[in-house]
Here is the input.
Amino acid sequence: MTKKLLFGLITITLVALVAVPLCSSSCVPAPAPAKDSIVIGASRPLSGMNAMIGDAAFGPIMTMWEEEVNAAGGIYVADYGKKLPIEYLIYDDATDVGTMVRLTEKLILEDKVDILFSSCGTAFISAQAPIANKYGYVLLTAEGGATIMRDALYGLPYVFISLPFSDHYQLPVFADMLAAKGAKTAYIVSIADLHGVEYSGVAAIEFARVGIDLIASVSVPETQEDFSIIIKDAKAANPDVFCVFGYPPQVLPCTAESMALGFNPKCFIAGPGANFGFYQFTFIEALGPNCVDGVLCFAAANRATSPEFAELYDDLEAIVSPAMLDWWGHPYYAPLVQIWQEAIEETGTLDQDILRDYIATHHFDTILGDTYFEMSGEGGGGLLVKETHPGEIGQWQNGVVEIVGGGPWSNTVITADFIYPKPPWPTP
Amino acid sequence: MDLVTILDIAIGGLLMGGIYALLAMGLSLQYGVARVLNIAHGEFIMLGAFATYTLYTAFGINPLLTLAIVGPIIFIIGFLLHRTLFTRLRISSPSPGAFESRSLLATFGILFIIQNLALIGWGANLRAYSYLNFGVNLGGAIFTANRLVSLGFAIGIGLAFYIFLVRTRMGKAIRAAAQDPATASLMGVNINRVLAICFGLGAVMAGFAGTLLSMRVPINPAMGMNYTIIAIIVIVLGGLGSIPGSFIGGFILGIIGTVVTYIEPSLSLAAYYFIFMLLLLVRPKGILGK
Here is the structure.
């Protein structure tokens, strides 16, 4: 009897030892894997030439979004069954493409971040896109864009380009605006990098299309700081249209020299640079708030575009100075984080493949209205469709950037008439 | 090419060259006398530029008057750096050669420290202000007033310093230390003090160049390295340790830069390096080098 009891106990114990672990993995629902936050990695130019663009462009949107999301307790991710706050892991690439490439690989391979955010600058996102794509990380690019990137999208299914660029659809709109005003000649100064090559090349094509003669196209190295001889040459050539396709270190001295030398073409466009608040602030002390009136820039929206944009710029101004407002980029970077948030909430996952497919196939209701990406063939990347652009060209008028040019689609909101010729530079 | 274009190029070159000369003079003093090849030289230019920017935009102090504030502050920083760091390195180094390489590495460290402190203090943004930004007509060629004024100040500062070196007792001590520190020390020159003063004065030249530059170009905490490279090219061109050489080298580089910019702007940077290589091959001691 005792033997039988003992045998029964041993059998039950053995069965329990085998069955309980099996049951725990298959019979009872598994607890959600532990996770405390969504880690978003980015290689950003915290120093170097692009730092001022990074700080004023995507930077403020990142800060604002982090505050908003975390104040609400985070983003609900169904896979983890709870709201997860977002946490940034940001490295400084010091505006060096090579460093950015290494840091991007580190973020993906070593830090294993949940989400990858864009680097800053056309040349930078061009280099980052194939890396993100190789490791299957979704990349919604911020500052930058180029025709060669759009062509490469066919082989980059994880890459989505958000910012409008040269022929998508800024310069075609710009050329049509100039043609309508009867402009005949143009002079281009561009920086010797991907951005300058891209814009001067596309501008040459677009100007030729509308019958504007290109008098000169001058390329300058990024270290160039004396622009007087170039501005004098431009002044002697007396073009209707003067273009500076460079960054603030080129845009600001070209503007200052043009003011001092009395070079006042009928149209003066400069960017990226003139689309930021700091462009006006550079001259405001000496020349007053209307110091850069008449200058054109690449810009999408301002406070008059819609109440939502007015609210966006008010919210941004609450966290950054007015010098940091960006009338070209902010209208696109704000939707970009909205897209991330909706994609994560709707799919309930941080799985890059699922997120990629969701972003590629869905329309998003953002500050731009109906927002979606045009996909480049089967298994390619996406380009934010031009019909979402509320504007392409801005002009400083009475101390603010007005939207004076946009594409022929319903989303376009023109906030003021294009003034041509531009008023003379103010005198001190 | 008409007369106005020639004037444009010639005067434009002098305007760039004046600033180059000033910053090269500082480095020439630091390397030629104190034997410190100061890679952080450009960071003192940046400090001068930011100090002026802050004093002008926050307190409304005239940028040219800020020279009187920037000078003493940067001199003290440079002087103390030498008395603490470089004097110790000099004493502990087994040979002058070892000191040169050790101090070179130390200046890399100083570069990163100053640049990152500036990043924390001022942020990475580009800063610019508009001052004396109007045209002045010189025989048909027009130049901005701020560039003409900065050339005047650069020449004035250079001349004052040259007179200081030639006419004063301290100037004599500096020249003696440049020729032979050991002998100068035996003759009663307080060598540590003289070298520290040289280093401090070199930093002041950089700070002054920064002040003058901030009136005409946008500034940011990473701006220094370009100017360090230009200063090195100019002192190689003009001859190490020679004040007139710094001016001649600065003006030559400025004029070459302007000529190349007039012909083909994309080659202006390449032209600087070409001159640098050519000179090292043909006359490594520089134009006025001994």
In short: The two ends of chain A are 113 Å apart (CA to CA). The CA atoms of residues 190 and 200 of chain A lie 7 Å apart. The mean pLDDT of chain A is 91. Chain A touches chain B at residues 45-49, 51-52, 54-56, 94-95, 192, 218-221, 223-226, 228-230, 232-233, 248-249, 252-253, 256-257, 259-262, 278, 282-283, 285-287, 291, 427-428 (CB under 8 Å).
